[in-house]
Specification:
single chain, alpha+beta, 8-stranded antiparallel beta sheet, 7-stranded mixed beta sheet, 15 helices
Length: 650
């Protein structure tokens, strides 16, 4: 489909608003007296776009958990999750992420990939995350760089990007949007659910449980949806206003707030007029027309123009901008690859399974937090999903959403860690001219379609160099193993002393099936490997939030055998007298009669330590701004190798 250039805004209020502020002009705005707390937020504007995964958009961005992730899932064949099995290829039988170069191919208008309930679970493959290509096709591995989506990258550099924000459902648009607007998909079948497909629609309003806007209405909190309930691809809403799928909204008549606030035509012109008049409600939901929703068959650049138009409308009234938070997220990944395995509830978790399959979390999707309190190009690595937007509104308004499951409240945060309310920055960032980007998108229609790399032409993804500042996180995770030589039991103990639950997936890297065990940890949890059943050998890894990784490989030595080195290693989070001097402490011990030789390595650093029988040693190891990645080996002849990676919060 070729897109012609279209003018998104008319000559009404929005056009007038934009005329007062040249696109991208940087301007320092005077801020009024503030409390330095969340109460300074008077307005929340929420825009959920369509069908992009995090790696598809931001895997190459500097300073985020993208293609350079050192803690990426290791597959049983020795490769990482980035090397997806593709048995039809002659160059290694795998396919790596490849850039969709929009200067050479029509990457602005990609095809739709499978993103069904069954297809997404197939790619997930019980947590093995190694069936993306059979489930989604080879195009799943395509990604963009800064040259391809400059506006989206500019937003990340100007504000705060979340690199652990997951879709809510391993499935398509509608179930995910139901979580976005109501906190659930009705697993208990009390209101038309469970909904795991795209069957609800404006013409088939088959849902009838309570939504969050209804709770706001009952509490006297103002809200409004800016949406046009038509099918016109230029001006309609692509049926993405999920409230229209609910019977109570479909039945509401003029004069009923459900009708007046959600079911009538409101465009970005109306939004801009409300901004200029300082009459925005407490909560606003924007719903983009199809051509501007960033669906793969629509274009990232058209979506950028829609987002920019909304933001420039806010910037046009400094008094409104300085008290507004704008949340930009995406409903699901469309089928495009992301490498971070999402947290999954343990079997039997209430309200989190349909037909024996976990609902979510689904693949990572982008979330950019745009506000004066989130300026500065930060990254936030706290685990979030679509219920997190509702949780943020809960904190702001005091209106609780009871549909959100207990497990999601444990695992997913409320977005408040994305903000520094004590240090607002109301300077308007310099952003790319999206009118020119629309022209680029139109011209790209003449280019050939995106193609898969030819055999022998695969290259590693190009990741931008550098880092970005990171927000503090509510985790303080650790993990160590103890070996019982008498029983052959190897016990992995996972701990978390942070304020938020940490989720871990524990994998048998070899010998045993690769399917992970799931643990949600608020204090501690234990995973036991019976090495007596595996000839004494153990090989397991635990993956957790913010690049947490533990990997333990070794052999349990029989109690009667003591004339060899029997090494053991544990890691302790060291004291942190100040944030820049964070350390970890390696506790080295040896239960054998022969000296154990430990080799400790991390990027750019190594050390050898000799430990005699029952004379343990401690080695303090420096962190790099809180980050550590340490591997300890010992010359035992049985492959002893322990790896500890993660982050020490200050």
């Amino acid at each position: 489909m070729q897109l012609s250039r279209r003018k998104l805004l008319g000559a009404g209020a929005a056009g007038a608003a934009l005329s007062t502020l040249p696109l991208g002009m940087a301007e320092a705005l005077a801020a009024p007296a503030r409390t330095g707390k969340i109460g300074d937020v008077a307005h929340v504007v929420i825009l959920m776009q369509e069908n992009r995964s995090f790696d598809h958009y931001y895997g190459a961005l500097r300073g985020v958990r993208g293609f350079s992730d050192p803690a990426a899932l290791r597959l049983p064949d020795g490769g990482t999750v980035f090397e997806q099995p593709d048995y039809g290829r002659a160059d290694g039988r795998h396919l790596r992420p490849f850039r969709i170069d929009t200067a050479k191919v029509n990457g602005q208008q990609l095809g739709d990939l499978d993103h069904s309930w069954s297809g997404t679970h197939q790619a997930w493959n019980n947590g093995m995350y190694n069936r993306w290509i059979p489930a989604k096709s080879e195009l799943t591995m395509g990604y963009f760089g800064r040259q391809d989506i400059p506006y989206q990258y500019a937003l990340a550099d100007a504000f705060t990007i979340c690199d652990a924000y997951f879709s809510s459902v391993q499935g398509p648009t509608n179930p995910n949007r139901l979580y976005h607007w109501s906190g659930m998909l009705d697993t208990r079948a009390t209101g038309g659910g469970p909904i795991i497909d795209n069957s609800p629609s404006r013409s088939n309003p088959n849902c009838h449980w309570t939504t969050y806007p209804e709770r706001l209405q009952a509490a006297g909190v103002s809200w409004k949806v800016y949406s046009n309930p038509t099918d016109d691809e230029r001006t309609g809403n692509y049926d993405d206003n999920s409230l229209a799928w609910f019977q109570q909204y479909a039945d509401a008549k003029p004069g009923n707030p459900l009708h007046d606030n959600a079911m009538v035509k409101r465009t970005l012109d109306d939004f801009a007029a409300d901004v200029l008049a300082d009459t925005l409600p407490t909560v606003s939901w924007l719903v983009a027309p199809y051509l501007y929703c960033e669906h793969p068959a629509a274009t990232p650049n058209y979506g950028a123009h829609y987002v920019n138009t909304a933001l420039q409308a806010l910037f046009a009234n400094p008094a409104v901008w300085e008290k507004t938070a704008f949340l930009l997220n995406y409903d699901e990944n469309d089928g495009y690859f992301d490498h971070v395995v999402p947290p999954t509830p343990p079997p039997g978790t209430p309200d989190e399974f349909v037909g024996g399959r976990p609902i979510g979390l689904g693949p990572r999707v982008p979330m950019t937090v745009i506000s004066p309190w989130s300026r500065g190009g930060w990254v936030n690595s706290e685990v979030f999903d679509h219920t997190s937007t509702l949780r943020f509104l809960e904190v702001l308004t005091g209106v609780r959403e009871p549909n959100i499951s207990a497990w999601r409240r444990q695992v997913c945060g409320d977005l408040t860690s994305c903000f520094d309310f004590a240090a607002p920055d109301t300077v308007i960032p310099l952003l790319p001219d999206t009118k020119k980007l629309v022209e680029v998108a139109d011209a790209s229609a003449k280019l050939p379609p995106a193609a898969i790399p030819a055999v022998g032409a695969q290259v590693a993804p190009e990741v931008e160099p550098g880092t970005r500042p990171a927000r503090p996180l509510p985790y303080q995770a650790n993990g160590n193993v103890t070996v019982d030589r008498g029983t052959g039991r190897v016990t992995l103990r996972l701990t978390n002393s942070g304020a938020q639950a940490a989720h871990f997936g524990v994998y048998a890297d070899s010998i045993l099936p690769f399917t992970p065990a799931q643990y949600t940890v608020t204090d501690s949890a234990e995973h036991v490997w019976d090495a007596a059943a595996t000839d004494g050998v153990y090989d397991l890894s635990a993956y957790g939030p913010n690049g947490f990784l533990r990997s333990f490989t070794g052999t349990v030595v029989h109690p009667e055998q003591g004339d060899i080195a029997i090494p053991a290693v544990a890691l302790r989070l060291g004291p942190a007298p100040e944030p820049r001097k964070r350390t970890v402490v390696l506790e080295l011990s040896n239960a054998g009669l022969t000296n154990a030789v430990f080799t400790i390595t991390s990027p750019g650093r190594s050390r050898t330590v000799y430990v005699s029988t029952y004379s343990p040693a401690e080695v303090e190891w420096p962190c790099d701004q809180g980050r550590y990645d340490v591997t300890v080996t010992s010359e035992t002849g049985d492959g002893f190798r322990y790896r500890f990676a993660g982050f020490v919060e200050a």
